[in-house]
Write a structure and sequence with these properties.
About 35% of the residues lie in helices and about 25% in strands. By secondary structure, the protein is an alpha/beta fold. Helix 2 packs parallel to helix 3, helix 11 packs antiparallel against helix 12 and helix 12 crosses helix 14.
Length: about 400
């Protein structure tokens, strides 16, 4: 058994800053947060200039795409996809490890403690996925490896696999990491335009069997909207709902082209959403109706996507842009604010991640970032720390990151 009490001068508890607190930790999880230490024999003092925030949750990433940074700037989605899928043909398992490690290192520097990595280069088996997991663990991040299937004919053998192979390989990967507290394996279907209906249903069933979340790129571009109308005569949400392909474990990724009727469908099926505002902007897509989704009870987390469509892997940036975009879209700055941005980057992200993370609560993992209150972006009023975290905090202010109660 490992115990410690970590002293911080300030801590953001919910929406309020509390002063002179001890985070009491047992076996990597929070026991309590108190004015006096529970474990006197093992005290860590973060200093009089410290403020602690919950670790940030990246709910959608393609970490290997760090290898593509700079190759896909300023091009249409059609050109973007051609570049991505042609370049990945060249990548070795070592390349995938190195690209993923580069991405995870950047995330850690930006206060991200948990990442959901949507990985689809699985045509040859689980080797590449294991390389991504190793990269995350070598950096120190907590990872949900979201193992995706692509099964439509005509796709590269580097990414394509049939459903039977997918099931066998997924089960083997899940079993290998089942006892690792820092790794979760969950199933994913790439999209309705890269997967058969049978593949999506199989992913949904696997997730239900293991009681985990599953992801799918969902209403993610104008191209997807047009594909669904041409091939199904309905929207992405309508197609999936009509074919019983939605459930409460589903996490849609992007949701850019969802209208109010689609949002009703999402809410009725209790699905969640990973919102990737910077990637959406990079690829020239419209703002998603995030305010309406939240108002309908849909849990929305934030993701960076891959560096090919977002060269800045920072949930701090995603929070800031998510809020500002909604203010501008609604033409009313009072209808969407820092609290929504903060929750999307922390607590809601934790809900999507498969881990007990994203807030300071008993039994949750002790994942947090330690910032220096002398940094200009955390001044002049420490009681306004939630606002500063969303609107101004620089990664320069982050001095330490703790995951499972250990500095990484």
């Amino acid at each position: 058994m490992s115990t410690k009490s970590v002293f911080t001068k300030h801590i953001l508890m919910g929406i309020k800053v509390e002063n002179d607190r001890y985070i009491n930790i047992k076996d990597g999880r929070i026991v309590s947060i108190t004015a006096d230490p529970e474990f006197d024999d093992s005290i860590v003092d973060l200093g009089r200039h410290s403020i602690v925030f919950p670790g940030l949750i990246n709910t959608h990433s393609h970490a290997f795409q760090s290898l593509l940074k700079g190759y896909t700037d300023d091009c249409t989605l059609e050109v973007f996809l051609k570049i991505v899928y042609s370049k990945l043909e060249e990548f070795t398992i070592e390349d995938i490890y190195n690209g993923s490690r580069l991405a995870f290192s950047e995330m850690l520097q930006n206060g991200i403690t948990t990442v959901c990595d949507f990985f689809y280069i699985n045509g040859a088996g689980n080797g590449n996925a294991k390389a991504v997991i190793k990269a995350a663990r070598d950096v120190g991040l907590r990872i949900n490896l979201m193992r995706s299937i692509i099964d439509l004919p005509g796709k590269s053998k580097k990414v394509r696999e049939d459903i039977d192979n997918y099931k066998t390989r997924f089960n083997a990967l899940y079993a290998q990491y089942e006892k690792d507290e820092n790794v979760v394996i969950t199933p994913c279907a790439h999209s309705v335009y890269y997967c058969t209906e049978e593949a999506i249903r199989s992913v949904k069933d696997i997730a239900q069997n293991y009681s985990v979340k599953w992801q799918i790129h969902f209403s993610d571009s104008q191209g997807t909207r047009d594909y669904c109308q041409t091939n199904f005569g309905k929207s992405n949400a309508e197609y999936m709902a009509d074919n019983q392909l939605m459930d409460e474990n589903m996490v849609g990724v992007h949701g850019i082209w969802c209208d109010k009727q689609d949002i009703e469908i999402m809410a009725n099926h209790k699905i969640s959403l990973s919102h990737n505002p910077l990637s959406n902007q990079f690829l020239g897509e419209r703002p998603a109706l995030i305010s309406e989704m939240l108002n309908n009870g849909i849990k929305v987390g934030l993701g960076t996507d891959g560096a090919a469509s977002n060269p800045s892997l920072s949930i701090l940036n995603e929070m800031r842009h998510a809020v500002l975009i909604q203010k501008a879209r609604l033409l009313d700055p009072s209808k969407f604010g820092s609290l929504q941005g903060f929750k999307m980057g922390t607590e809601h992200g934790g809900h999507l991640s498969g881990f007990e993370v994203g807030k300071f609560a008993k039994g949750f993992w002790a994942d947090f970032m330690v910032c220096d209150t002398r940094d200009p972006t955390l001044n002049p009023y420490i009681e306004k720390a939630l606002s500063y975290m969303v609107y101004s905090l620089s990664p320069r202010a982050i001095r330490k990151v703790y995951i499972g109660g250990k500095e990484v």
